[in-house]
Write a structure and sequence with these properties.
The chain is mostly helical. The chain has one domain. The protein is built from six helices and no strands. The protein is globular.
Length: about 120
């Protein structure tokens, strides 16, 4: 009888010590990448020049998809690693692997080309 009490008390204490809350580190690992707050002035200018009338939210979504979806499986190449002519093919080739639809592909391409313009000071 004494052993049963010890087992029950041990089980209750063990259960009480186990937290159902995620630790701060675990929560951060499982979170999606943070949303981009706003476009930098340089990126906003490049977007307006390359795509007049484009919504800044489309460029921000493209950046979020690029870093979140593309960066999920491999390191992100610098936007200058490929020519402007190569990026559309690269994104089209990788889109099925990243589960991007056509609208998302377009946003990623717009972001990458605008970011490339900023990086190359076009």
């Amino acid at each position: 009888m004494k052993i049963n009490k010890i087992i029950i008390v041990s089980a209750v204490l063990l259960a009480a010590c186990t937290s159902t809350k995620k630790s701060a580190d675990t929560a951060k690992v499982n979170e999606a990448p943070a949303a981009v707050a706003a476009l930098s002035p340089a990126l906003a200018k490049a977007a307006g020049t390359r795509y007049p009338g484009v919504a800044h939210t489309d460029i921000m979504e493209g950046e979020k998809l690029y870093t979140g979806k593309c960066g999920k499986c491999h390191g992100l190449p610098a936007v200058t690693d490929r020519t402007e002519e190569k990026w559309p093919g690269t994104i089209s080739w990788m889109a099925p692997k990243a589960h991007l639809d056509d609208v998302q592909k377009d946003k990623v391409l717009k972001y990458v080309l605008c970011a490339r313009d900023v990086a190359t000071k076009k």
